[in-house]
Write a structure and sequence with these properties.
By secondary structure, this protein is mainly beta. It has a single domain, classed as Kelch-type beta propeller (Neuraminidase, 6 Propeller), CATH 2.120.10. It is built from no helices and 18 strands. A 3-stranded antiparallel β-sheet has the order 2-1-18, with no helix packed on it. A 3-stranded antiparallel β-sheet has the order 3-4-5, with no helix packed on it. The chain is globular. The two termini are 31 Å apart.
């Protein structure tokens, strides 16, 4: 006989246990890197793992297949290749690029086991097009863009199976913006939603609490440490006073199924800040691994 589950019981968190930061630019060595750093299920960042794939920064990363990840696009020259991340956190060699080469957009999961890569710049113009990622990690050809073309945009999941792109700058870096674009559970991007919170670019975003998200840090005429929470219906809240070192060009990801972590950034650092399952950002944790800016991050299981 099967046990009866009470109607008011709480379901377990469905996020991945571990995370990975990858790629970036190390200005001390004056070089791009493909170095990665794994994040444990308790939020501990590991020392450097030798990089695999083309060195670059402003890469876009997200989950796919329920337990794996992908890094794609980026800049050394302007690139479109991708690198798959296994469910053990191992990064694979380059896969030939699909779609418009660009950098400094972002990516997030949708539909439980797929991903979407969107926005960015090719150094000539800002972009709003997207590329879907299948549950086998295959990147599809360009989908016509929806919403304001911009770079420095960031994305995260919400609601268990949907996503959101928000913030960034347009007119080739001339104007900070705060609008958002929701992604449905079938990967369709919605039109612009009026922005909430401080307009800024090159912040970072990740999920927390199983079905919510958080945007944090970035540049708005100066470095920021403020955050904005995203509800489980995709509504962005007003600014929350920042915690930790103000910085830009950092990355963030899930860990521990229902928590998050911000890490790295400029001014060049390797510090991290943990995010609780209630969306509370903790004070700085001493950095581990190569200090760099413009990395990306995703989770795996």
């Amino acid at each position: 006989m099967f046990p009866i589950i009470p109607a008011n019981s709480v379901t377990a968190a469905s996020g991945n246990d571990e995370g990975i930061f990858g790629f970036g630019r190390d200005p001390v060595a004056s070089s791009y890197v493909s170095t990665t750093n794994l994040v444990s299920n308790t939020g501990v960042v590991a020392t450097d793992t030798a990089g695999v794939g083309t060195i670059r920064y402003y890469v876009m990363g997200c989950e796919y297949g329920g337990d794996k990840g992908i890094f794609a696009y980026g800049k050394a020259s302007i690139l479109s290749m991708s690198n798959l991340v296994s469910n053990a956190g191992v990064v694979a060699t380059d896969v030939a690029g699909v779609g418009t080469a660009r950098y400094n957009g972002d990516a997030c999961g949708y539909g439980d086991d797929k991903g979407i890569i969107g926005y960015g710049t090719n150094d000539v113009t800002d972009i709003s097009l997207t590329n879907l990622v299948s549950n086998a990690g295959v990147v599809a050809t360009d989908v016509a863009g929806v919403g304001t073309a911009r770079s420095g945009v960031r994305a995260c999941g919400y609601g268990g199976d949907k996503g959101i792109f928000a913030y960034g700058y347009n007119a080739n870096g001339a104007t900070n913006v705060s609008m958002s674009n929701l992604v449905s559970n079938v990967g369709v991007v919605g039109t612009d939603v009026t922005g909430v919170g401080t307009a800024r670019n090159n912040n970072a975003a990740c999920g927390y609490g199983d079905d919510k998200g958080i945007f944090g840090y970035g540049t708005a005429g100066g470095l920021c440490s403020l955050t904005n929470l995203v509800s489980n219906v995709g509504v962005i809240a007003t600014d929350t006073t920042g915690v930790g070192t103000a910085r830009t060009a950092l990355a963030a990801t899930h860990y521990g199924q229902d928590k998050g972590i911000f890490g790295y950034g400029s001014p060049t650092t390797a510090i991290t800040n943990l995010v609780s399952n209630a969306g509370v950002v903790a004070t700085d944790v001493a950095g581990v691994g190569t200090a760099r800016y413009g990395p990306s991050a995703c989770s795996f299981n």
